[in-house]
Amino acid sequence: MANLEAHLRVPGPTPLPDPVREAGAWQMVNHRGPEFAALMARVVPALRRGFRTAGDVVLVGTSGTGGLEAAVVNHLSPGDPVLAVTTGAFGDRFAKIASRYGADVTLLEVEWGRAAEPEAVRGALAAMQTAGRSPVAVLLTHNETSTGVTNPIGPLAAVVRATAPAALLLVDAISGLGAVPFDTDGWGLDVVITGSQKSWMVPPGLAMLSVSPRAWAAAERATMPRFYFDLKAHREAAEKGSTPWTPPVSVCFQLDVALGLIEQEGYPAVFARHAACGAATRAGLRSLGFDLFADPAHASDTVTAARVPADLDWKRFSADLRARGLTLAGGQGKLTGQVFRVGHLGYVTVHQILAALEIVEAALAAAGRPVDRGAALVAASRAADRAAAQVAEQATGPTIETTGAAGGTEVQA
Amino acid sequence: MANLEAHLRVPGPTPLPDPVREAGAWQMVNHRGPEFAALMARVVPALRRGFRTAGDVVLVGTSGTGGLEAAVVNHLSPGDPVLAVTTGAFGDRFAKIASRYGADVTLLEVEWGRAAEPEAVRGALAAMQTAGRSPVAVLLTHNETSTGVTNPIGPLAAVVRATAPAALLLVDAISGLGAVPFDTDGWGLDVVITGSQKSWMVPPGLAMLSVSPRAWAAAERATMPRFYFDLKAHREAAEKGSTPWTPPVSVCFQLDVALGLIEQEGYPAVFARHAACGAATRAGLRSLGFDLFADPAHASDTVTAARVPADLDWKRFSADLRARGLTLAGGQGKLTGQVFRVGHLGYVTVHQILAALEIVEAALAAAGRPVDRGAALVAASRAADRAAAQVAEQATGPTIETTGAAGGTEVQA
Q1: Do B8 and A29 touch (CB under 8 A)?
Q2: How far apart are CA A330 and CA B151, in angstroms?
Q3: What torsion do the CA atoms of B180, B186, B188, B194 make, to the nearest 10 degrees?
Q4: What is the crossing angle of helices A213-221 and A64-75, to 10°?
Q5: Taking Cα atoms as reference points, which of A233, A228, A195 lies closest to residue A216?
Q6: Cis peptide leading into residue B370 (ω within 30°)
Q7: What are the phi and psi torsion angles at A81 (to 5°)?
Q8: pTM of the predicted protein model
Q9: How far is the C-alpha of A189 from the C-alpha of B241, rounded, in Å?
Q10: Are B377 and B284 in contact (CB under 8 A)?
């Protein structure tokens, strides 16, 4: 590496704090022994606090995509009508998995860059009901990583609960949960999926899923085939402090350490940090002349997508950024070549965002583009201040609820 | 830990050499970037040398069990007649996965502790053919971890090829490949599965599968549902130096380092080391008065199962071993409580086996059982010498073939 610093600013894997890195080097233990059972006894309750659920949380040795598959195959049967609300490449993937296993999927496709609207979901549900195809499940994406949009899961879930009370709510929260306020039980969500390499500051290798009592009941009836992803086998093994198949032990060590760091910081501070980093990123990129892709009202605090200017050779520019120590992500699916993405989730601070913006600014200047050197940093740091103040103000409002768990968790209405 | 040393002698996860441990602490990289592509360009050819195949080898972020599922769902369709040859708990699991996805499974159940015999397989195939149910695939287990038996895959495969030439050979080589001679292409195997946490000296998290051209052709026709485990998606991503879903990046780092260590040692030396450790374990346990579970003609050089004496309280004894720094594995499935198992695969030396035997000896003496202190160590070290001499003698025979790859690979007929 030619640079002293490496800035990995993709929306996962995210950088690892040193204590998490170091736990990756620990010697193996028996995954059926007392050390691993003690780890599970720490990690599972900590995840319950992170998800805000009193229900089960299971660990599956897989990526986020495998977690989506687990959510589908455990709770649905071939032929089941399903409403898939998709706002980007990951919403499409969730729907595709359900189709692949034989669900009868109705797509509610939202224009990429926009959030799903509760009224549109209500309409889609009503249309399915009128057609005699009441949905068995609704698939939602919390944070759409391909577009940088955070969907309003609370209001969306409320509409589903009111319109189709029997439908299960399966929610891809892979790239948002742990970074922004989220309330699994308060919103009545049945299965929520996240991945270790996102807000949790851990290498990839683990999907974590919450499962509601309603979802467990559905699993008893669901006939899609499953073995590795059988969540019931995971629940049974977890009762003995283990997993049904050999888990990625070192990633579990790292998750244990990372959850300790997160609870030490406290979820309110974690959420405020992400709000500040998201605001700083957006303000900095706008100051540099980039058009942001997402509807500003639903801009994600974990990933920002910006349009690649027509006269910028992205391939060359991104290679120059890499040479300067900054790795960004390109566009996905139909946005390939059209947008680039900055990840700001997990182990991220405003200082790191300022460094990334400084590198982009320098690369733009080197490419001969008009740049007011330092202006993006001013814009970003001011936006971070404003976001932090706003969060602090919300935190003094009346809607706060704090649990007693290490560091406390908090939800903002 | 009360002990200065920890001896993890279970059949996976295996201990990690220090360079492999340390690679687990490396900072994340973009799994779609040039660093990861460079890693894939080293790891995949190294695995090909380890498997002895010119075909494709794919990495899937899952456990060995997930690897078995991938082998089944990519190459079979519901209703396909399948012969599952099972010699223990893992053979049963492979068959169960095929049944779960709708294959029409015929079980050839071999008494636990014995190896599968080619003639029995020939008979089972012929019976299926006579019944008009020619098998689409035969499921074999190379090293049965639950019983400590290594099945003779070469002769078994030859019988399948001769009797049912169209049948795919799907082979669970999870706990043997990389530790004992194995010849994927020479034996005509279609899909071979192994796991990172076994002979490869890497934490769990990755299954590695070889796929023959015949198996790829079958995948085009196979209709069992798959998404995460879709091997074709893995092959396509591998062509771009990546994986279709986010891989367990730190485990990939560790596999890269471990393959380097293995090729530096050289497969002939690795095989000789496992032969010596297997012989030492068996001789030491016999010297301590234990009955070994496996047919001596097919005793595994990666795991040894021994019967728990009727008058030994295994639970208490194994807790005492743990207090002394030694972790062994109990019995699995119907052998729970009846056998214990010693893992000797991956990062293992004869010295480590001697240490483990010394701890067992001391614990037996402490339990008031008659022990000739040191006798097991004498027996073990002499057996290791004999095994090493035998391997060296074989290595001077005429059947050796060496490839030019780093360190060379070798097969012993």
Answers
A1: yes
A2: 48
A3: 30
A4: 70
A5: A233
A6: no
A7: -70, 135
A8: 0.95
A9: 37
A10: yes
What's the mean pLDDT in A27-33? 96
User: Chain B, 83-112: which have a CB under 8 Å from a chain A CB?
Assistant: 96-97, 100-102
B246/A204 CB distance under 8 A: yes
A237 reaches B (C-beta below 8 A) = no
At position B384, the amino acid (one-letter code) is A
Strands annotated E in A136-280: 137-141, 143-144, 149-150, 168-172, 191-195, 207-211
- Amino acid identity at B156: L
Q: What is the pLDDT of residues B373-403, one digit of tens each?
A: 999 999 999 999 999 889 878 866 544 444 4
Domains of chain B listed by start with CATH number = 7-14+266-395 (3.90.1150.10), 18-262 (3.40.640.10)
- Between the alpha carbon of residue A350 and those of residues A183, A251, A274, the distances in Å are 26, 27, 9
The pair phi, psi for residue B171, each rounded to 5°, is -125, 120
Which pLDDT score, from 0 to 100, does residue A24 have?
Answer: 98
For chain A, the average pLDDT equals: 95
How far apart are alpha carbons A274 and A175 in whole angstroms? Answer: 12
The pLDDT of residue A391 is above 90 = no
What is the Cα–Cα distance from A143 to A208, expressed in whole angstroms?
Answer: 16
| Residue type at position B120 | A
The pLDDT confidence band at residue A393, using thresholds 50, 70 and 90, is confident
Amino acid making up residue A351: H
- DSSP for B335-404 reads GTTTEEEEE--SS--HHHHHHHHHHHHHHHHHTT----TTHHHHHHHHHHHHHHHHHHHHHTSTT--B--
* The one-letter amino acid at B339: V
Whether A409 has a pLDDT exceeding 80, the answer reads no
CA pair distance B107, A256, nearest whole angstrom: 42
Distances (CA, A) of B220 to B76, B139, B165, B191, B232: 10, 20, 19, 15, 9
Q: Does A25 sit within 8 Å of B24, measured CB to CB? A: yes
How far apart, in whole angstroms, are the C-alpha atoms of residue B325 and residue B3?
A: 6
CB contact at 8 A, B147 and B88: yes
Contact A329 B30 (CB under 8 A): yes
C-alpha distance from A225 to closest chain B C-alpha (Å): 6
Task: Identify from A28, A254, A347 which residue to disrupt to test chain B contact, counting B C-beta atoms within 10 A and taking the largest count.
Answer: A28
SS3 A208: strand
| CA angle (B369 as vertex; B366, B374 as ends), nearest 5 | 75
Residue type, A219: A
Instruction: Return mean pLDDT, chain B.
Output: 95
Q: Given a cut of 60, is residue A397 above it in pLDDT?
A: no
DSSP state for residue B299 in the 8-state scheme = B
- B205–A101 CB contact, under 8 Å: no
Phi, psi dihedral angles at A341 (to 5 degrees): -130, 140
DSSP code of B31? T
- pLDDT for residue A392: 78
A152 touches chain B (CB under 8 A): no
Record the tokens describing residue B155, joined without a space.
């002769």
Phi, psi of A56 (to 5 degrees): -80, 145
Q: Which residues pair with B342 in a beta bridge?
A: B304
pLDDT along chain B (413 residues), means of 10: 86 97 98 97 98 98 98 98 98 98 98 98 98 98 98 98 98 98 98 98 98 98 98 97 98 98 97 98 98 98 97 95 97 94 98 98 96 97 95 65 41 36
For residue A209, count other CB atoms closer than 10 A to its CB.
Answer: 26
Who contacts A315 (Cβ-Cβ below 8 Å, separation ≥6)? none
Check CB contact of B228 with chain A, cutoff 8 Å: yes
